[in-house]
Amino acid sequence: MDFTNVSLTALRVFRAVAEQGTFTAAAAALGYTQSAVSRQIASIERAAGADLLERRRDGVRLTGAGRIVMRRATAVLDEIDQAARELSGLPEPGGTVRLGWFPSAGTTLVPRALAALRHSDPGLQVISREGTTPVLARALRAGSIDLALLASAPPFRAPDTESPPLSLQTLTERALRLAVPETHPLARGDFVDVADLRGQRWIAGSSNGADGLMGVWPGLDERPEIVHTARDWLAKLHLVAAGCGLTTVAASMAHAAPPGLRILPVRGGPQEMRRLLLARLPQPPTEPVVRLAAALRAAALATVPYP
């Protein structure tokens, strides 16, 4: 095996494939063609003299050799990125933490925690990015992020089935809410009865993979009429405010809601709970990770549910 001619591009492509789970998704994330991704993976596997990825019908998974190479590749890429930050004059005295977060966490929770850290722990640098739960779980396994902020719905399964299990900490558990245009008949009371959700028009997320039909109230006994599809939570809420339909919303997002809508509890059925989780690898966390986790926990607990 000879890694002397392996390029940084190949290492970055390898990490992207491990995180995204498929060659197609990695190509889209990197802006490459799928054939270019395949060539880079072939080059690094030739250098390793072993298969680094197990090809499966549902995507790819790191082999034992792949996990070894990924650990070393991550260390190399982190050093390169660190050098770039130092050359840019960014301070590093308090350490660096790489954070991944689910999409709607970027509206309130993550900015609130980072703003607090600028005052209480200005030396701590947080590098963050958004991702779905499967992508963030793979990124934790690959070592390209240190901490992941995840949302979980019943039956509250683990983020992945890999071994050993990820270390999970529940920050909050709150009931799902409903966003309703303020001119809608359902907005007249202090809550919405679940029976009144029949026949409503919905604004939902993507209907594929891990996203499911996020935005439609769970457990409806009818096929929902979805009139608008949007991945971005604020886009959904603005569509609600414009009178285009209803959508679900986590309690933690309520204070980011635009004018023109009401956020209400739903009664008459089982409570639809949502958990906010912190996930990391099952090993002792570094001090910077502990400090960021504490800031995220404080920000989550300080978020008051919408009245």
CATH homologous superfamily grouping of the largest domain:
Periplasmic binding protein-like II
- CATH class designation of the largest domain: Alpha Beta
How would you characterize the largest beta sheet?
A: 5 strands, mixed
| Alpha-carbon distance between the two ends | 62 Å
| Helix-residue proportion | 25-40%
Question: What is the domain tally?
Answer: 3
In terms of structural class, how would the helical and strand content be classed?
A: alpha/beta
Which range does the strand content fall in? 15-25%
Number of strands: 14
Strand line-up across the major sheet: 4-3-5-14-6
CATH topology (fold) name of the largest domain: D-Maltodextrin-Binding Protein, domain 2
Number of helices: 8
Helix and strand run: HHHEEHEHEHEEEEEEHEEEEH
- Mean pLDDT score: 87
Assign an overall shape.
Answer: globular
Low-confidence runs = 208-212
Task: From the alpha carbons, calculate the radius of gyration and give it in angstroms.
Answer: 21 Å
CATH-derived architecture of the largest domain: 3-Layer(aba) Sandwich
Can you describe what's shown?
A hairpin with a 2-residue loop joins strand 1 (53-56) and strand 2 (59-62). With 307 residues, this protein is α/β, with parallel strands linked by helices. It has three domains: 8-66, Arc Repressor Mutant, subunit A, CATH 1.10.10; 91-173 and 274-302, D-Maltodextrin-Binding Protein, domain 2, CATH 3.40.190; 177-271, 3-Layer(aba) Sandwich (D-Maltodextrin-Binding Protein, domain 2), CATH 3.40.190. The model is unreliable at 208-212 (pLDDT under 50). The strands form five sheets. It has a five-stranded mixed beta sheet, with helices on both faces. It has helices at residues 8-20, 23-30, 34-48, 64-87, 109-120, 133-142, 233-241, 287-302; strands at residues 53-56, 59-62, 96-101, 125-130, 147-152, 167-175, 177-181, 192-193, 201-204, 225-229, 247-249, 261-264, 266-267, 273-280. It is built from eight helices and 14 strands. The N and C termini lie far apart (62 Å).
